[in-house]
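Hey,
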Amino acid sequence: MAAAGHGAEDAALFDTVKSVGLDFCPALGVSIPVGKDSLSMRTRWEEGGAQKQVTAPLSLIVTAFAPCADVRATLTPELRRDAEVGETELVLVDLGVGRNRLGGSALAQVYGVSGSEPPDADATLLTAFFGAIQQLNRAGLLLAYHDRSDGGLFAAACEMSFAGHVGVSLNLDTLCYDELMNDVDGLERKPEVIGGRVKDRLLGVLFSEELGALLQVKRSDRGAVMQMLRDAGLGACSHVVGTQNERDEIRVWRNAKQVFAAPRAELQQLWSETSFRIARLRDDAACAQEEFDALADAADPGLSAQLTFDPAAPFVASGARPKIAILREQGVNGQVEMAAAFDRAGFESIDVHMSDLQAGRVDLKHFKGVAACGGFSYGDVLGAGQGWAKSVLFNERLRGEFAAFFGRADTFALGVCNGCQMMSNLAAIVPGAAAWPTFQRNRSEQFEARFVMVEIPDSPSIFLQGMAGSKLPIVVSHGEGRAVFADAAAQDAALVALRYVDNRGAVATIFPFNPIGSPAGFAGLTTPDGRFTIMMPHPERIFRTVQMSWHPQGWGENSPWLAMFRNARKWVG
């Protein structure tokens, strides 16, 4: 983006395009398949008889994409701290090669300066770095990975600490060389903040946003890791800079002296404070406060999985594949995941759009089950599930067809997300569903897409047989999931099939552990015969372990949530 025709902007634009298109990308071996430009980044107006103008600086935004052979090999910033890995270390791969240019950095912006020299990229080093990381990952030598160039080494170490809920100690001795001392770019103009002219590289080392990454490796693998980095030509810029500590603190050491220390939970609150202040103004203020306050709980155990069943237990399929209608409406987008989950459990999943039923092309009498899917039915406008249900209730033939399906003793139905809303509004024709609630706007007043803990209480639901007592994570993704009952009697009569719990396993009453504000943590309900179950979370999105953003080490291909769908298959017989 540039202000074409203004001053020297055309020359700068030419130099940028030449550098990126003719020099940098060819050196990396990557192409630019598409681009979008805006060359009118200047506006002029008259105010009070004076001509004024604003000119945006030349800027380039690049989004990269590439094929991924196996998402199971994805690296995350979550520090491993389990006994299996033993002692670990943090290795900084510094593609700035000792330079710590602070121009344009977050640190410079905080102090109100721009700096004169920003970081640059060396295509040869970057290519070598990419190849080395791929090789290390294939060899199973990397436990965690985080980019250094968005906030600097200190930010990267803190964010890895936050993700793993573990303290980190950084030792900067190998990064602060006397012969490489330099003034911290532009910041000497802020003596009241940083004590005058900075004569060492401590701030530069911690906050420069040079390219590079922070890697967690086993201490026992250090030799092999460093050798691979040396073989890639990165030995001179690879340094062991940190370890975990047992005090749950972020510590910085230099010359055998501790120069900084703070509790991890305290820094995590500081890190989140800007988002919290925005959320308090934009969202439900009480929810924002509850989420912010929860960060101060240093003893929060985080996500976990406590199973009362064996998800790897063998499943014997009879060979018959009963038909299930994967029901969707305009805007629904969860049908493929739902079909895949039921297919893996031994069903024949049939895509059925509401228009097929309305036109008479499909009849529910041919199916053993119906799964009403989630997504954004009717654009996810307020009451989207109600609109879907009314397309049945206000159509005499369809109402009769659904009532007949629900009335058969050999059928079952599952409603998820929008499908949960839809089925709750069909309660009048669902046997045993009289106490079901409607689902209204989340307490947070926002669409909530989170990975949260639920427990599976004992219930008659055919989907959850043998799973009672389990606590494990699940995906939520909706804006209208708050259960609202007709009255206290209806709430007491409702049969809960799924309930939100906090990270200690207690019924969740506060945000974000109860992300939608349902009373008593209600996340799913069923009927007395267990044939019909509705829930707002999305088990179909995580029926494979690889779909889960977090899971315990050692889980196989199928996640515990696949048991839900296999239970339905067992029930059909």
